[in-house]
Amino acid sequence: MLRTKNKKSLIAKLLFVAFTFAVTIGAGSSTPFTPNTGPSLLILGDSITWGSDYFAKAQKLVAGDGQWVNVVLDGQYSRRVAFPTPNTSIRMSGVKSYLKLKDAGLNPDAVIVALGSNDVALETKPEIYEKIIRDLMNTIGNVPVTWLTVNRRDTKAIAARSVVFNKILIKMTAEYPNLVLSDWYSVINSNLKLMAWDKVHLTPTGYAIRAKSYQSLARDIYERYWTATAPTTTTTAVTTTTTPAATTLPAVTTTLPSDTSTTVATATTIATTTTLASATTTTLAKTTP
Length: 289
Hints:
alpha/beta, Rossmann fold, six-stranded mixed beta sheet, two-stranded antiparallel ribbon, 9 helices, 8 strands, 42% helix, disordered C terminus
């Protein structure tokens, strides 16, 4: 009985290994959306993102919260952040994939980026990492972005470059205030069993955790989007000065009595005019939506 269970377990593991291998060489998809509607969230990633949707229904998990009108999960095997040199590939470039989605009518109000694993496997220079990260950030523009850090461990050299890539990401947050990082690197480091046999992709449990992470990040980035776009109330002081019309008092005439010693009466008339002016200042609060 025990041998039968072990055999089934081994078969299941082998099937998963075979499927994971298939993912590394040919998996990719983009979930549908309604063009020119929003708010829209784009999750832009590689085969790890694709696996999170296939194994753990990440897109449905995020969409189930009901915050975003469109939740587009676009994951593609071997996808890089961008190419440091001109390249016509749309499928393999995060930058070109983003532009293709824009052309199709998706206008992301926020983006979760899960790219970099394939870049650290192929590029070795920190300045290249900085260049491609800046390329994608400039392409996305001034909307909230959350970027998951990288942890690829198939060789020691690639593992070391993952650390360098993440340091460049940290550096770039100073240049892009709309960029926030999610520490996926530490999630893997705390439990290496979440990684599949190739030390790049994930186990079913790992994909489930990754999908939950997308859901949590989608909630957080929605708050950032809402804060950035919510109407603001500005109070402006408006001063109104009212000056009443001048009031003129009637002339006061005083006639002095006749001097008994003089035959000519002397009449002295004093006209006194007083103008009252008062300024009433009223400050109104004007609310601008």
